[in-house]
Design a protein that fits this description.
Blueprint (H helix, E strand, L loop, with lengths): L2 E5 L3 H14 L4 E6 L2 H11 L3 E5 L7 H7 L5 E6 L3 H4 L8 E4 L4 H16 L8 H12 L8 E6 L2 E6 L3 E7 L2 E6 L3 E4 L3 H5 L7 E5 L2 E4 L3 E6 L5 E5 L5 E4 L11
Parallel strand pairs: 1-2, 1-3, 3-4, 4-5
Antiparallel strand pairs: 6-7, 8-9, 8-12, 9-10, 11-12, 13-14, 14-15
Helix pairs in contact: 1-5, 2-3
Length: about 250
């Protein structure tokens, strides 16, 4: 019997997909319904489903983050409220998406493809390149990228060129900004800053940490499989959560 999880931070889209799947694919067993990305990742680890229906935008971890973390372990169908500007990144047939609000006809097409792949025992495709392209499209073009970070320290405004910043770290209501030779706190949450960062240059390695990729000297894995990042020219070590450990697999 095929199995699946459904992940969406809104109740109605989750229940709609579950209801339609009960008719279109009655033998499919829904083993978990998740409200955010971290819960979805845990459910995939526990249940090892054949299919994951993932909302692209979820709190904690996005659907893209979850798909990256479990790449190749299950077939993925994204649900999204975004138009063709975003979904144009999908390669035809390699991975599927459902535009919200999801219709019976469109879900039926996705179900047919999934059934065919499972019947032929086709492995889930490697989505690394596609997910990177989709992530770039969803973040917007380079015109909206952050070039400077300004932070108030007493009666002084510190200016940090984006190319000198090593990492960002959530600190309650603030975000800690660390450069090559200085640091400060800004009154802006990390999740808002992420939207203006180039995803090729800045990698999220934890829900509360984003690091400049070329500042990473090495990544170390302990006996329990936990990954820690070391930066060039600094003694500070940054923890990598399980959801982002995929970035540090050996090539």
């Amino acid at each position: 019997m095929p199995t699946a999880i459904i992940a969406d931070d809104e109740d109605l889209p989750r229940s709609d997909i579950r209801r339609m799947l009960a008719t279109l694919w009655p033998e499919l067993q829904i083993v978990a319904e998740c409200e955010h990305g971290i819960e979805a990742l845990e459910a995939i680890d526990v249940h090892q489903p054949d299919v994951a229906f993932l909302d692209i935008r979820m709190p904690g971890l996005t659907g893209l983050d979850v798909a990256n973390a479990v790449n190749g372990r299950c077939h993925t169908v994204f649900t999204t409220a975004y138009d063709s500007h975003a979904v144009a990144a999908f390669a035809a047939g390699a991975i599927d998406y459902l535009l919200k609000p999801v219709t019976d006809d469109r879900l039926a097409q996705a179900v047919q493809r999934l059934r065919e792949r499972l019947a032929l025992e086709q492995p889930a495709p490697d989505m690394t390149q596609l997910l990177g392209e989709l992530d770039r499209r969803l973040r917007g073009d380079t015109a909206s990228r952050i070039r400077w970070i300004s932070a108030s320290v007493g009666d002084t405004i510190k200016m940090f060129p984006i190319e000198q910043i090593l990492f960002f770290e959530s600190d309650e209501k603030y975000t800690r900004v660390v450069s090559v030779d200085d640091e400060a706190h800004v009154r802006k949450p990390l999740k808002e800053l992420i939207a203006g960062l180039d995803p090729d240059l800045f990698w999220q390695i934890h829900r509360g940490v984003v690091v400049r990729a070329d500042a990473i000297a090495r990544a170390r894995r302990d006996e329990l499989g936990r990954v820690t990042v070391e930066l060039r020219g600094r003694n500070e070590k940054l923890k990598v959560s399980q959801a982002y450990a995929w970035r540090f697999k050996a090539m």
